[in-house]
Amino acid sequence: MSRIGKKPIVIPSGVKVNITGQTLTVEGPLGKLEQTFHPNVNVEADAESITVSRANDSRAAAAMHGLYRALFQNMVTGVTTGYEKKLEIFGTGYLFAMAGTTLQIRAGYANEVQKPVPEGLTVKCLDQTHISVKGIDKQLVGQFAAEVRQIRKAEPYLGKGIKYDGEVIRRKESKAAAKK
User: Fold this and answer.
1) pLDDT digits over 11-59, tens only?
2) Could you tell me the pTM of the whole model?
3) Is 59 within a domain?
4) Smaller CB count within 10 Å for the chain: N or C?
């Protein structure tokens, strides 16, 4: 039995949960999220909690039990507090800038990289080297932050590139330092 799947999800005040067919809808102060779930999973909701259980004892149902419980917990957290990822860029001439709903990234290429911000996300430039990605959908926030980081990952020799705030880049010695 999944330890995560067995735990009920506590519904905070101000959050409405609705189950119609195979779709769970969570509405809170920050917005509304929907998730369809597999028939191998049974979902029940009352006024103060959401409970996820298996429809049968198959291997597929066991795999989905904890997954859907975690997804539903992320939805409840998203509509109450939201999610945020911070990114940092390091390098001479490297910077972030916002132009309307497009993130402009100068990361050492011949041209600026233009990254449109998906609907449902808020991207703020804290300064030219730091941005904050906020939203209620954990998957969307993480995916956009990963795509921005992928444009120029921080490299291990000089540390130039884009990294998550607080991420530690293991530094390597250059070839010239090894010859001495």
Assistant:
1) 999 999 999 999 999 999 999 999 999 999 999 999 899 999 999 989 9
2) 0.90
3) yes
4) C
